[in-house]
């Protein structure tokens, strides 16, 4: 295909992806109430406990702005099958059969890990908010700005979700021949240090339980990626040895 044909094809794919995102946002906008109820559950718990916590809408358009932000975020996830397929359909003609197989395996591994990370993030959110709420002095009132509160929760979920996908990138580097399984395993001390620092940054410094839980999961995922990479290296070595071995009539 010429460059012009590629650009036309790209425009077509982008328009389909954008249309799917709009549809996903419309659907997500309709279901924003249960999503808001889910992420604001800690605020209601604290309000019942002390009566000094509430979700605050500081501007006339704040409630609508919050719903639009939620609709956009959830719309991306709902329309993911469509826009992922459009990306795949655009680049697939240039991929070999082996590259296609690796890409499918990568996506099939990364997507569940990402959503698992988001779920773990949801478990961490109440502990983080409760810890921060505990620093409120007597007589103080916690009025959480709705948009800022949602941005905090969304960013935390994204950070934890992406961190769960990082071991898949290590395996991808191994499959691509960039790093061996032994080289990945050799960096286990650095990996533990990075996981601990990342967990400390992603969770409040005083919340040791959430930090250790997140760091432990990341370390387990790292060792799983290292073990899988070493298994791939062993299979690759056996395959190379069998190809180099002389035939029966040699």
Name some characteristics of this structure.
250 residues, two-stranded parallel sheet, 80% helix, mainly alpha, 10 helices, 2 domains
Characterise the protein shown here.
Helix content is 80%, strand content 3%. The chain has two domains: 1-94, no CATH class; 97-120 and 147-250, no CATH class. The protein has 250 residues and is mainly alpha-helical. The chain is flat, with a radius of gyration of 23 Å. The chain has ten helices and two strands, in the order αααβαααβαααα. It has a two-stranded parallel sheet with strand order 1-2. The model has no long low-confidence stretch (mean pLDDT 79).
Biggest sheet architecture: 2 strands, parallel
Can you count the helices?
A: 10
Strand residue percentage: under 5%
Shape category: flat
Which strand order does the major sheet show?
Answer: 1-2
Low-confidence stretches: none
> How many domain regions?
2
- Report the count of strand segments: 2
* H-E string: HHHEHHHEHHHH
Terminal Cα separation, in Å?
Answer: 46 Å
Work out the helicity level: over 70%
Radius of gyration: 23 Å
Mean pLDDT: 79
Would you tell me the structural class of the helices and strands? mainly alpha
């Amino acid at each position: 295909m010429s460059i012009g044909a590629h650009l036309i094809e790209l425009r077509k794919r982008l328009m389909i992806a954008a249309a799917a995102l709009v549809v996903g946002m419309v659907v997500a906008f309709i279901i924003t109430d249960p999503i808001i109820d889910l992420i604001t559950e800690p605020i209601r718990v604290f309000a019942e406990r002390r009566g000094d916590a509430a979700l605050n809408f500081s501007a006339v358009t704040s409630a609508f702005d919050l719903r639009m932000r939620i609709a956009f975020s959830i719309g991306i996830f709902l329309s993911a099958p469509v826009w992922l397929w459009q990306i795949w359909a655009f680049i697939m003609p240039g991929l070999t059969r082996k590259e296609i197989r690796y890409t499918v395996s990568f996506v099939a591994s990364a997507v569940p890990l990402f959503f698992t990370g988001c779920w773990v993030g949801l478990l961490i959110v109440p502990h983080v908010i409760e810890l921060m709420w505990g620093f409120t002095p007597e007589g103080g009132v916690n009025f959480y700005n709705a948009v800022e509160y949602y941005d905090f929760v969304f960013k935390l979920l994204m950070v934890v979700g992406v961190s769960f996908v990082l071991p898949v990138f290590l395996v991808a580097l191994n499959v691509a021949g960039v790093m061996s399984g032994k080289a990945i395993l050799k960096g286990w001390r650095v990996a533990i240090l990075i996981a601990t620092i990342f967990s400390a940054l992603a969770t409040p410094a005083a919340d040791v339980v959430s930090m250790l839980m997140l760091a432990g999961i990341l370390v387990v995922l790292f060792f799983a990626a290292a073990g899988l990479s070493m298994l791939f290296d062993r299979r690759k070595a056996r395959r190379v040895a069998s190809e180099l071995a002389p035939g029966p009539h040699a």
